[in-house]
Amino acid sequence: MLHPPQSTSCPQGSSIWPHLPLHVAACEGHPASASASTPESTCPASPEPGLLPFLNEPHAAATRARTRRKVTSFTERPTKSTVIGVQMPPEPSLEAALAWLRAQPDARYAEARFVDETSERLAVRDGRPEQVTAETSRGVGIRVLGDKTWGFACTADTSEAALLAAAKRALRVARASGAVARFAVVFPERAAQHGTYTSRLAIDPFTVPLETKLAALDGPERALRTGDARLKSAEAWMSWTRQRKRLVTTEGTDVDQTFTFGTCGMHVFTLGDDGVSQRRSFPTYQGTDGFQGGYERVASVDLPGAVDQVKDEALALLTAPPCPAGTRTVLLESSQVALQIHESCGHPTELDRALGSEISLAGGSFLQPPMLGKLTYGSALVTLVADATSDGGNGTFGWDDEGVPAGRHALIERGLFVDYLSSRETAAALGRGSTGAMRAEGWNRPPIIRMVNVSLDPGDAGSLEDLVADTDDGLLIATDRSWSIDDLRLNFQFSCEIAWEIRHGRRTRILRDPLYTGITPRFWGSCDAVCGPEAWRLWGITDCGKGEPMQLMQVGHGASPARFRDVTVGSEP
């Protein structure tokens, strides 16, 4: 589920975690604020003085106060290294904690996961910086499987003594949990994994001057508000996250991964004479424009090149008629197909939801284990794949947080429901192998089942315009605005920013406030065309929320535009 960004804090004491069959956690350590200088940068160059007018305007003093870079550090200021914001704890710290756990007769398995994360969020709105923040977080989480079930503990102190203490707390929690657990967790052993994974990037975003990044947002944002008094407000944004993660387990696994995630986008709001406002976003709505890669992706998004189209469509929506209610053939553009995948396929194929051990945030699933290999989820054109190896995807990695290597697994194959997103424990409950979907937001959270890159394989319907030309009568609907779905992920409704009516293979009038609704298997069963590889794009959701306490995660969805028949449509009131 998409969820607004929120800060996370370290839970205190012990609490029951929604994990099969029982998961209890204890955690110590609290952040202390500290300031840190921006790392020296080499590329690209800073803009010329005066390029950012808001830095020279009368409110500049207040602006500078808001844009001072704040770093939250759990132990000390970050130091320079080959990976910005990362300082690896001494090797004996992790090893000593695991060595102690190996010596405990009732510790069947244990893992220590070190995470060091630096993030930066930038936004310019209506000519001024709306957000310029930076944060760091650093610590170790230790998960232990005792005789019957799990225990978890975490600490921001990465000294050997602190990690030994955390290991002892985690085992105590596992023992206490085991006293009330009805069944022992089945956790199949796996061969030890070794290696490294690093995001591919050409330009490290953390070496790019702050002024350069703000200039890349300021120009398009100002342009969005020029030329018409009805262009009332605009915003452009980007964000960057660098996360280093090292996983060491009692099975001998030792893997080191470094991720660089980014976002970049913009939107404009218009206001009509009737007081009704419209929004138009690019490349899609905020929170689903993510990727794994470097600053070079900002140029490829090309915010300046999209300004005129975004403005024109936002203005046209003010006088456009509402989308008529009825049953229509519907074409969804790529990013809307991606969100449809996320809500109606990604979440219901999470096995912890199907087994009933994770039901927060509308979290059950209509996809039950007896349906595997039997349920027709969609038409024969619908193949949905969980692929943690997709280049540049938000859900791409080398290993999940249980040491399972990244892979590609069909969830829906030619319309047939064939597999789940799973962990080692939940997959064993079905007599299957893990699909490698266990990930944790940070060091102070245990891993849970999360989507990777869950994508729709491309078809053979060509480009979006080819698909439009092949449609005699229908609607092309684009860019989500809001949505709702029931607690089984079965009945849904999506409201979007814009639609075009299609007549005789051509786009005609623009329609405002379109919505469509459906029942998941019936909707995907009505899919009769999927555009080809040339129209396929990998989108990234930056803040998929799940779990108690909440965990936000980067996940990906690749999709081409697709066509669906006999869809109920209408307009928001």
Strand content: 35-45%
Structural class: alpha+beta
Mean pLDDT: 87
Largest sheet: 10 strands, mixed
The oligomeric state of the chains shown is single chain
Number of domains: 2
**Can you give the helix content as a percent range?**
10-25%
User: What characteristic shape results from the CA principal axes?
Assistant: globular
DSSP helical segment count = 11
**CATH fold category name of the largest domain:** PmbA/TldD fold
The CATH first-level class of the largest domain comes to: Alpha Beta
Poorly predicted runs of 5 or more residues: 3-24, 30-86
Please give the radius of gyration in angstroms: 24 Å
* CATH homology superfamily of the largest domain: PmbA/TldD superfamily
Give the N-terminus to C-terminus distance in angstroms: 25 Å
CATH architecture group name of the largest domain: 2-Layer Sandwich
**Could you tell me the number of beta strands?**
27
